[in-house]
Design goal:
116 residues
Length: 116
């Protein structure tokens, strides 16, 4: 299976794009989560039925999912987004720490119970 199957956008609430390579009987699906999978051994007639299905997500779930060998493709775009998310998370954590430090500095002094 190759990672270069061209996918075309489809109208679906769960599937973003679909591609098919008849010579290898490989189906490529990008889900709305941006995860991309390739399924092997998909007969051309199964691909045609998927593309004609009123609900592509339902057809995929009942006719293809867990019935054919598959692999998840490496998605560098997703990894880049994850990196951006990690940076944003770090910025949020830093801001929380600053707020906490500021709150501790502004806390009233003890009432003197700790005096020796």
């Amino acid at each position: 299976m190759s990672g270069g199957i061209e996918r075309k956008p489809v109208f679906s609430s769960s599937i973003k794009s679909i591609g098919y390579e008849s010579s290898s009987e490989t189906l490529a699906i990008e889900f709305t989560s941006e995860a991309v999978y390739e399924f092997s051994g998909i007969p051309p007639a199964m691909y045609e039925r998927l593309m004609q299905a009123e609900s592509k997500g339902r057809f995929f779930g009942t006719e293809i999912s867990r019935k054919f060998p598959y692999r998840r493709l490496d998605d560098s775009k997703r990894r880049k987004n994850h990196g951006a998310d990690s940076k944003k998370t770090a910025q949020i954590e830093q801001a929380k720490a600053q707020v906490k430090a500021r709150a501790q500095r502004n806390r009233p002094a003890d009432s003197g119970d700790n005096q020796a």
